[in-house]
């Protein structure tokens, strides 16, 4: 059969047509592999898992069949494979879409592989003469070994004798173990690190809630303190107003003593003051009153003058005219006996009193405690900033949005006073228009959590790296073990000198093909090849030249095998064997003649041997239809007898086992 020509089709015979059809389909596939892997090419792997993958010296091309290497798509191979001959990287070429009108049974890219004709393929890297190539049958997952040619033209030889599904399954199992080990290690590391991240984030939420609860508790306590302070001021005002409304303002000295005594017994009060209906100072607890002082212009005075309510009022903070510091006025209206406006009684609360009360609480360098009045006016604050007292605190949202919904709660905000992001709690006084806001700076409050989290995540990351490194080391060990096993397997099944299968591989393949042929009813043929007068060649030219001769003859024999599933093997010494599953006697004879002619074309001199003066071979051919009671040894014995007959008849010829000639006529 010429390169590029499709093999003649044979019909299935026997009682197992499905199995025979599978055998023919596989044989066609293997034939395609041999024809596609043309001269000086090396197909490393052919695999099918709904799609075939062809790997050539580290370059991987994907297509529905081996057509990816055919002349039909040479541009894709040249474009995608250029410059990658020496690299180890994979290059993928996707299959073109199937043209409209192409039948699945025709030549479209979706046709079954064994129905697609093989054509010439573009050139690829050369096969190394000391190594074999491995492919997988797309039909039965059998391993195929592709051997380099040692000289001349022709395709790669195909060895179907390597391990079958069991060995391939073991290799796939080892690969899957390595893959799953890597996935497990990655998942373990990611899970461990992810768990630490999740726990750290949960602790962050817990820390924020803790901060909010702490600040809210403090805000409630300080709001109660502010409410109590205003309440004490209200008691002092009530007692003073009651005396004035009953006795009048005539006895100023008595009123002054009364007011000084009240302030002395209630340290929270800054001072007590009494103003008549015109705003003039009538009496006070201050040691000295400013001359001609008049408070008729104060907001609290105008409010009481206009409002007949006797309720205690907390006014806007003002500068004291007697001492000059910021005070918070708490005042009440005084009525004359006829009910008309008679004056105002005033208690002053120093703004510094509240800031000094708030100072001992540790809320961080950027934390703050703020006392708010009506309209979110800043009454007092810690840390102290007197320039802000009496102005807008920037916390109006608490009074206008949150406080109506709940008298206490938590709140996160960015301060307009210093631009610091804070979170904390607020609480309103029960009986006074006052609100206390306790807030901690978010950055400061979360600093301990951040330090602990960074330390834990660092330790978790280091642990993940260690586990990942250990996992990578284990995966690498698995892959090394796989490579060692693959090399040992190759050494166990390969002849080191010729690169062909060894005797062990031949025996295993013959046994396997014999059982398969017995099930499918297909024939099996065996060729035994012997180099004529090889001992004389060794004596005349030396052992190195003899080894070179053996390698050259092996390459010629491998090149003569053109069918898929056939096996070229070294039988022993200068003898070789060609196993041809599914071949009739006539087909085996033609292969034998092709092998003999291929050796003759080597044109290697042999002055002490055949009459031609060149290296030649004798071939014995035997074919059989295996049956339940037959054994492969019968086929070997018949081929050996035919080989010796060829030698007796003059060598350099092919002899067919006479006992099987009748079968050859029936099967052919």
UniProtKB/TrEMBL annotation:
GGDEF domain mapped to chain residues: 522-659
GO BP annotations listed: cell adhesion involved in single-species biofilm formation; negative regulation of bacterial-type flagellum-dependent cell motility
Compositional bias ranges of the Basic residues kind: 91-105
A molecular function (GO) term: diguanylate cyclase activity
Gene3D superfamilies linked: 3.30.70.270, PAS domain (3.30.450.20)
Enzyme category, top tier: transferase
Region described as Disordered: spans on this chain: 1-23, 79-126
Record's GO cellular component terms: plasma membrane
Pfam family, one: GGDEF
Residues that span the membrane, as ranges: 177-201
Enzyme Commission number, as recorded: 2.7.7.65
Catalytic activity: 2 GTP = 3',3'-c-di-GMP + 2 diphosphate
Keywords: Membrane, Transmembrane, Transmembrane helix
UniProt xrefs under PANTHER family: DIGUANYLATE CYCLASE DGCM-RELATED (PTHR45138:SF9), REGULATORY COMPONENTS OF SENSORY TRANSDUCTION SYSTEM (PTHR45138)
Name of the protein in question: diguanylate cyclase
Annotated organism of origin: Methylobacterium oryzihabitans
Upper classification of the organism: Bacteria, Pseudomonadati, Pseudomonadota, Alphaproteobacteria, Hyphomicrobiales
